[in-house]
Amino acid sequence: MSVISNLSASKQTRGDSAPGKTAGPHASFQAAKRDLKKDGKPILAARNVFKSYHKGKLEVPVLRGVDFSISPGEFTAVIGQSGSGKSTLLHLLGTLDAPDQGEIHFEGRRIDNLPAGQRDTIRNQKLGMIFQFYHLLPELSTLENVLTPLMISSGVFSYWRNKRQFVERAKKLIDMVGLSHRLTHKPRELSGGEMQRAAIARALIAEPKLLLADEPTGNLDRKTGGEIMKLLSDLNQSGLTIVMVTHDMSLAQLAHQTVSLVEGVVEAA
Predict the structure, then answer these.
(1) Beta strand pairing status for 210-214 and 127-130?
(2) Nearest CA to 206 among 25, 38, 4, 45?
(3) pLDDT for 159 beyond 60
(4) What DSSP element (H or E) covers 210?
(5) pLDDT (tens digit, 9 = 90+) per residue, 55-98?
(6) Would you say 229 and 254 are in contact if contact means Cβ atoms under 8 Å apart?
(7) CA separation (Å) from 174 to 29, 177, 180?
(8) Which CATH number fits domain 3-18+38-266: 3.50.30.10, 3.60.15.10, 3.40.50.300, 3.40.718.10?
(9) Backbone angles phi, psi at 240, to 5 degrees
(10) In Å, how far from its chain's centre is CA 44?
(11) Total-model pTM
């Protein structure tokens, strides 16, 4: 059974209300502090990762030897001050960029040095990504935005052959995030919280093994941010591994593991 099916089943069992009706950002997170077995292999690991950027002739070091690993089913928060390298690290974990030195491993396989096409496939089929500014395509409806990863991965003929199945899957996800009344609305017709919900549904459409979230509540008010965190917590409870970048310590404390970046390295707990 997929994470999405697990989540839907658990909501029916608990009688949870739809997203948008939670009591607040901390009301339902105690369950997320469950114990995880860490005797297996990590699903994701960064090993001695370095990354610098260049401004003209000036080299700006961002990451200076980052090491950490994540167990399957874990909710990890990456925290640090602005400029500490949080988003850079997330982009490396998601194969959007490559480290200057070091290795990124996913499901026991090194992925940072793979050819671009293979990295694209991993990112499209096994990694879900959520960004602070949503990155929805403005000309597409909510339904079409959610379907985009399947359009890309399937190719034209395969997509049209399986379109009915894909659309049903997308509608279930959109309903799960509380946007069934916004199927045909374009991003300009949605609120910030609704756009983030649509982005979460899009990130889940390929049933990824790992969800990467870059400041998913950073552009939202406290109440709406709490609703998004409730949704992420429910997804994690249903088995989805999540890595979230945040500057909000109150949110980071709700994760199983906190990775603190200080001047480009992981600060010891």
Answers:
(1) parallel
(2) 4
(3) yes
(4) strand 210-214
(5) 888 999 999 999 999 999 999 999 988 888 999 999 999 999 99
(6) yes
(7) 22, 5, 6
(8) 3.40.50.300
(9) -85, 130
(10) 13
(11) 0.85
**How big is the CA angle at 257 (ends 109 and 216), to the nearest 5 degrees?**
85
In this predicted model, what pLDDT tens digit does every residue of 225-254 receive, in sequence order? 889 999 999 999 999 999 999 988 888 888
Helices (H), ranges, 106-240: 116-125, 142-154, 156-161, 163-176, 192-204, 222-237
pLDDT at 30 over 80: no
Task: List the one residue out of 267, 153, 119, 134 whose CA is nearest residue 198.
Answer: 134
Cα separation values, 266 from 3, 5, 119, 232, Å: 30, 35, 25, 24
DSSP annotation string for 176-208: HTT-GGGTT--GGGS-HHHHHHHHHHHHHTT--
- Specify the 3-state DSSP secondary structure of 52: strand
* Spatial distance between the Cα atoms of 205 and 201, rounded to a whole number of angstroms: 6
Using left for φ > 0, alpha for ψ between -120 and 50, and beta otherwise, residue 95 falls in: left
